[in-house]
Design brief:
Distance between the termini: 49 Å
Strand content: 15-25%
Number of helices: 11
Strand order of the largest sheet: 2-1-3-4-6-5-10
Structural class: alpha/beta
Order of helices and strands: HEEHEHHEHEHEEEHEEHEHEHH
Radius of gyration: 20 Å
């Protein structure tokens, strides 16, 4: 099943669903040609703010608008409209951002959404999700659309290399492998890279845990606390700025519970990525499985060195 088939199937059984786009039809290309849904499909053109205003109005009348646009323009150009029209009123408008993070591989900084998690989770009531791949997204979307809260989802059409847990619950992470000496916390398209990095590290004798942080807001606080307590090193891997993303979320959770851990970040820090083909971007930014494994071992060695020198 594809995203388009899923939303078509659900829309045919729930006439509250309205499918909208700001001239970004990649996920929903054939829906306008479906006679049963043609009157519930709205393309506003390249007008993200207008689309959000219309979606808020439809939600006030009992509809559930599912809107689609490029993630960079949806979360930044339309931010005030999302905050004011959707967030303040707490309306069930479902935002779907296309090519978020490194999936905007060939585009320059204007088209890169690598601060979108930070921006969206700052809005009260807004739920934020980042599926690991296409299969994970299809597992998650029915629950997300069913929720009465507004939401932002990073769309992800990457093909899966791991069979995901089908019992998705909002606010719960997917524990692929329990916390161990090294535990990875990851979300979105970098899941596949981290999954392979984990295998490399295990071949070198390391015990490695892996958690798919598919629900970023609300977040699974229990697994974060457990990873921090049970691991010598927690490594957060994200195609997002270090500020405001999962690294910040984990820090907030640990501070809230008055605890700490050895938590390190592999992120984009203060830099937009250099555009190229995706494989080249991953290589250049240090997110191939081999480079993630190498960088993680360096972090672990630094941890051991600090312990020997009595700094931890």
């Amino acid at each position: 099943m594809t995203y388009e088939q899923l939303i078509t199937e659900l829309a045919l059984t729930d006439d509250r669903l309205i499918i909208m786009t700001a001239e970004n039809r990649a996920l929903i290309r054939n829906i306008p040609n479906n006679p049963a849904l043609a009157n519930r499909f709205i393309d506003t053109g390249i007008t993200e703010q207008t689309m959000i205003g219309m979606a808020a109005g439809l939600a006030l009348r009992g509809r559930v608008p599912v809107v689609h646009a490029l993630a960079a323009f949806l979360t930044m150009r339309a931010f005030e409209f999302i905050r004011t029209d959707v967030g303040i009123a707490n309306l069930p408008v479902k935002l779907t951002g296309f090519i978020p993070g490194l999936l905007s591989d060939g585009n320059g900084p204007t088209h890169q959404a690598i601060e979108d998690i930070s921006i969206m989770r700052g809005i009260p009531h807004m739920q934020v999700f980042a599926p690991a791949d296409e299969e994970d997204m299809l597992v998650m979307m029915p629950e997300i659309w069913k929720s009465k809260s507004p939401s932002y989802t990073r769309a992800n059409l990457v093909k899966p290399i791991y069979q995901h847990d089908k019992n998705f619950r909002i606010g719960k992470a997917e524990v692929v492998d329990e916390p161990a000496t090294i535990t990875f916390l990851v979300y979105g398209m970098l899941f596949n890279q981290v999954y392979q990095a984990k295998q490399i590290l295990e071949e070198q004798g390391q015990a490695v845990g892996l958690v798919n942080m598919r629900s970023l807001k609300p977040v699974d606080e229990e697994i974060i606390l457990r990873a921090a307590q049970e691991s010598e090193l927690v490594v957060i891997v994200e195609d997002h700025f270090k500020t405001g993303g999962l690294y910040s979320i984990v820090a907030e959770v640990l501070l809230k519970h008055q605890t700490t851990g050895n938590v390190q970040s592999l992120s984009l820090d203060e830099n937009w990525f250099t555009p190229a083909r995706l494989s080249e971007v991953l290589e250049h930014e240090g997110f191939t499985p081999e480079k993630i494994a190498m960088r993680t071992l360096e972090l672990l060695e630094a941890t051991v060195s600090q312990e020997i020198n009595g700094k931890r």
